[in-house]
């Protein structure tokens, strides 16, 4: 059971990775019955993520996160989660929250997708936002 954090020519500013990893593992365990967790977070800039978006999803737009589920079996969760720190910083300003809060919201967003939560319809989007908020509150009040 491993969660890794990589920085692709950027600094994410992510702190307390052990606490975050434990929280993410517990979050997955609440929603999925898996024996193996192998999550790789790759923090990058807009250009890097835009290229992934074009190459793999045929989208020519900037985004803050792309989540790839690479699981080969039902009892495992294997994923690469790409996060643009530039989008996170811009969105933090737009939503009037701290960079750290927005970074964690996006981190949780990726895992929630892997746990089956969607955000295409208005109803699904509202549930996703609620789940993100629950995660933020639980994570930042945990000691």
From TrEMBL:
Query: Which organism does this record belong to?
Result: Taibaiella chishuiensis
Q: Where in the cell is it found?
A: Cytoplasm
Q: Which UniProt keywords apply?
A: Cytoplasm, Endonuclease, Hydrolase, Metal-binding, Nuclease, Ribosome biogenesis, rRNA processing, Zinc
Entry similarity comment:
Belongs to the endoribonuclease YbeY family.
Q: What class of enzyme is it?
A: hydrolase
Q: Name one GO molecular function term.
A: zinc ion binding
- PANTHER family in the cross-refs: ENDORIBONUCLEASE YBEY, CHLOROPLASTIC
Cofactor: binding comment: Binds 1 zinc ion.
Organism phylogeny: Bacteria, Pseudomonadati, Bacteroidota, Chitinophagia, Chitinophagales
Q: One GO BP annotation here?
A: rRNA processing
GO cellular component annotations of the record: cytoplasm
Protein name as annotated? Endoribonuclease YbeY
Where is Zn(2+) bound in this sequence?
Answer: 109, 113, 119
Q: What does this protein do?
A: Single strand-specific metallo-endoribonuclease involved in late-stage 70S ribosome quality control and in maturation of the 3' terminus of the 16S rRNA.
Cross-referenced InterPro entries, in alphabetical order?
MetalPrtase_cat_dom_sf_prd, YbeY
Assigned EC number: 3.1.-.-
SUPFAM superfamilies xrefs: Metalloproteases ('zincins'), catalytic domain (SSF55486)
Q: Which cofactor does it need?
A: Zn(2+)
Major localization class: cytoplasm
């Amino acid at each position: 059971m491993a969660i890794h954090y990589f920085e692709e020519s950027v600094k994410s500013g992510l702190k307390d990775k052990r606490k975050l990893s434990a929280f993410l593992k517990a979050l997955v365990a609440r929603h999925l019955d898996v024996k193996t967790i192998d999550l790789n977070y790759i923090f990058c800039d807009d250009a890097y993520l835009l290229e992934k978006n074009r190459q793999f999803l045929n989208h020519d737009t900037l985004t803050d996160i792309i989540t790839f589920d690479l699981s080969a079996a039902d009892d495992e969760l294997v994923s690469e989660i790409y996060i643009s720190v530039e989008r996170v910083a811009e969105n933090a300003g737009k939503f009037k929250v701290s960079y750290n809060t927005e970074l964690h919201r996006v981190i949780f967003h990726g895992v929630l997708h892997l746990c089956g939560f969607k955000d295409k319809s208005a109803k699904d989007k509202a549930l996703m936002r609620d789940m993100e908020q629950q995660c933020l509150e639980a994570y930042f009040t945990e000691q």
